[in-house]
Each structure stands twice: as structure tokens, then as C-alpha cells.
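Same chain as my last thread, 85 residues:
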Amino acid sequence: MLDADFIRSRILEALPGSEVEVRDTTGTGDHFEARVVSPDFAGKMMVQQHKLVYAPLQTWLETGELHALALKTYSPEQWKKLGNR
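reply #2:
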């Protein structure tokens, strides 16, 4: 079973300097949601941003150990415009 801290650390390894918040949405250790604010997302479309987040988790997605990961991704500029909600 995975936990939010593990997923957060994997994302941070791939996107250092990012702000990452992860939570287990069902308590079963296989459904999560994450909010990632990263300078690496600047100028990238949402699909490209999500690929950057999914990449370090690919092994667990392929095995089904990580069944679902809902993403909200923002560049720092996008996040600032939203008022850091």
C-alpha cells in the first residue's frame, strides 16, 4: 500500500523546487489527489504538466498499486492568479 508521503517524495524528486500536496482520497492507499505548483510547468499545456507528474509514478500506475491520481497542476504564476486557493 502506498501513502501520500511516498507519492509526494517521488513527485518532488522529479520536480525539485515544487510545492506538492497529496492526500489519500479513500483511505485505501491506491486513490490519491495531488496539487502541484511547479516552475517546470511554465508555458506547458495541462497534458504536458500531468505527464511530468505521472512519469516518476509510472511503475506503480502500471502495476495498479496506484490506481488513481487526480491532479491539479499550476505554474507559480497560475497559482498566484488563483489567489493560492
